[in-house]
């Protein structure tokens, strides 16, 4: 599928309110979005709850803008601190929930009700991310204690820790399994992405993607794979996205692990930390950042002279009133994106192709902001505010 | 809290004088208040607060808690749409980049503010600013 700049528009379908604190993370149920099963996703928040949202199977669903979303369940009274991340098992039956209270809970969907069937303890403090592997047999968690844990799912919703991986020198922000292989990726406050693989039941770090090999120069917040799993995108506090490619031509080890290499860096588009990135099955990369904007990138097929490059397809300024913490494409046919923000809202968007016309950006506002940022950067040392004189209210 | 002062004789900086605002003197129904251009500019331009503070000694162990106090005070006082970046002044702290990175990692800040002991300490530090 080809995309042309200005040939798409982002339509806000619905704003979902309910969380009473910032929304940290979103996860679509991968087993939904078919003709029989309406789309479902989970959102988790600083309010210590998870909310389960379901699309109404409305009769007029031929027009997606009229279908609405309802909160079907609130998973509460289990975690005592922020719920940071959640992940559905591939079958969509289990939801794993990671919390700052140092535990990970496993919830089972029993006829529409969610029951907490297991609690995974072991991390010393905040658990920051959780991820299921492609077959649903392994679960990974990571956290502030710098470790990555791998758990094996056993009969009767029992989980056994099979490995505790030390290697990162700072807290680990996110873990994600490769979409087809049992290879685990973790990204960290130590600016690196580490790749973990299993060699005879012995999990170990097989590669570190850091600054020396064109990696990030600040915290890596998230990563995502393309549909086939031969490319990966990472996002960082260094204001860049980086594209990595699996180099299957140079097999490094006997077990056939293919190393990853830096392909290109998407730089100059983001003004503040990029917290989330997600690659759609069609090849559109969405990013959510602390500048409240959502951006979409596609591979630039014209720019192959200097190697592969990616271009901005669309930028939605002020997509939320505050930082955007998570952007996630839905499964299924429709090009739906869910976004979660510090403003406590979750928004459902549709990226629609335009037959005619162009998407007109609010150019005056952009012009103003660019002047402002220019001004700020040239006077960083001058613009120093102290408490008590920066604002007219509250002092 | 530490029992002894780390730096008994700190450099105390002058507070910048507050800019006088033009206020109508007469309280009458149709009084026209002149547009305060500076105030309008202030409101429009402050999308982002860039805070720089100078620890009194370069090994100050309280730098992160001071930064946390600044962040909490501003988050309680400002409308939520404002962005706040907090840094120690360049060259003023031995662990400058580590302190700056921690102060601007909102996940670590959020986790810290769920720690009752830290919140107590922050509240204690901020108490005088609410009088």
Task: Summarize the structure in short.
The complex is a heterodimer of chains A (395) and B (131). With 395 residues, chain A is mostly beta strands.
Rg of chain A, Å, rounded: 21 Å
Number of strands of chain B: 2
Helices and strands of chain B: which structural class? Answer: mainly alpha
Query: How many structural units, i.e. domains of chain B?
Result: 1
| β-strand amount of chain B | 5-15%
Mean pLDDT of chain A: 87
Query: Regarding quaternary structure, how should these chains be classified?
Result: heterodimer
Shape of chain A: globular
Largest interface: A-B, 42 and 32 residues
Estimate the mean pLDDT confidence of chain B. 85
Radius of gyration of chain B: 19 Å
Largest sheet entry of chain A? 4 strands, antiparallel
Main beta sheet strand tally, sense and closure of chain B: 2 strands, parallel
**Strands in their spatial order, largest beta sheet of chain A:** 1-28-27-26
Helix and strand pattern of chain A = EEEEEEEEEEEEEEEEEEEEEEEEEEEEH
H and E string of chain B: HEHEHHH
Question: Which residues of chain B form runs of ≥5 with pLDDT under 50?
Answer: none
Measured between the Cα atoms of the first and last residue of chain A, the distance is 56 Å
Number of helical regions of chain A: 1
InterPro entries (chain B): FSCA_dom_sf (IPR034904), MIP18 (IPR039796)
Organism (chain B): Lithocarpus litseifolius
GO biological process, one term (chain B): protein maturation
Protein name (chain B): MIP18 family-like domain-containing protein
């Amino acid at each position: 599928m080809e995309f042309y700049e200005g040939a798409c528009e982002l339509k806000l379908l619905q704003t979902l309110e309910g969380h009473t604190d910032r929304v940290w993370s979103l996860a679509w149920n991968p087993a939904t979005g078919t003709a029989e099963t309406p789309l479902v996703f989970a959102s988790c928040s600083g309010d210590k709850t998870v909310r389960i949202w379901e699309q109404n199977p409305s009769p007029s669903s031929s027009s997606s803008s009229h279908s609405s979303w309802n909160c079907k369940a609130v998973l509460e009274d289990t975690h005592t601190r922020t719920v940071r991340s959640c992940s559905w098992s591939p079958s969509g039956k289990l939801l794993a929930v990671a919390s700052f209270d140092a535990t990970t809970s496993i919830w089972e969907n029993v006829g529409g009700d969610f029951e907490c069937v297991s609690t995974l303890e072991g991390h010393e403090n905040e658990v920051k991310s959780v991820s299921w592997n492609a077959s649903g047999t392994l679960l990974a968690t990571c956290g502030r204690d710098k470790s990555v844990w791998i758990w094996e799912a056993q009969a009767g919703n029992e989980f056994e820790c099979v490995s505790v991986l030390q290697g990162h020198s700072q807290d680990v922000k996110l873990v994600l399994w490769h979409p087809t292989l049992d290879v685990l990726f973790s990204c960290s406050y130590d600016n690196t992405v580490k790749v973990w693989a299993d060699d005879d039941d012995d999990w170990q770090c097989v590669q570190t993607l850091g600054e020396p090999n064109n990696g990030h120069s600040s915290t890596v917040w998230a990563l995502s794979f393309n549909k086939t799993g031969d490319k990966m995108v990472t996002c960082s506090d260094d204001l860049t996205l980086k594209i990595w490619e699996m180099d299957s031509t140079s097999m490094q080890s006997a077990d056939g692990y293919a190393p990853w290499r830096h392909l290109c860096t998407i730089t100059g588009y983001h003004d503040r930390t990029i917290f989330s990135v997600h690659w759609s099955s069609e090849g559109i990369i969405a990013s959510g950042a602390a500048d409240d904007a959502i951006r979409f990138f596609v591979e630039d097929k014209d720019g192959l002279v200097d190697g592969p490059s990616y271009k901005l397809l669309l930028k939605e300024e002020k997509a939320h009133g505050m930082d955007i913490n998570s952007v996630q494409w839905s499964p299924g046919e429709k090009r739906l994106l869910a976004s979660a923000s510090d403003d406590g809202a979750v928004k459902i968007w549709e990226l629609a192709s335009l037959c005619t016309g162009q998407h007109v950006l609010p150019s005056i506002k952009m012009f103003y902001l660019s002047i402002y940022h220019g001004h700020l950067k040239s006077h960083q040392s001058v613009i120093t505010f102290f408490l008590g004189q920066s604002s007219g209210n509250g002092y | 809290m530490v029992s002894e002062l780390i730096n008994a004789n700190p450099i105390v900086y002058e507070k910048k004088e507050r800019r006088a605002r033009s206020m109508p003197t007469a309280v009458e129904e149709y009084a026209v208040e002149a547009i305060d251009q500076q105030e309008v500019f202030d409101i429009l331009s402050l999308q982002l607060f860039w805070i720089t503070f100078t620890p009194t000694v370069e090994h100050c162990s309280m730098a992160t808690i001071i930064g946390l106090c600044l962040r909490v005070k501003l988050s309680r006082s400002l409308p939520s749409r404002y962005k706040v970046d907090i840094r120690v002044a360049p060259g003023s702290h031995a662990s400058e980049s580590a302190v700056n990175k921690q102060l601007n990692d909102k996940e670590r800040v959020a986790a810290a503010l769920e720690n009752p002991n830290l919140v107590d300490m922050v509240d204690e530090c901020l108490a005088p600013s609410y009088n």
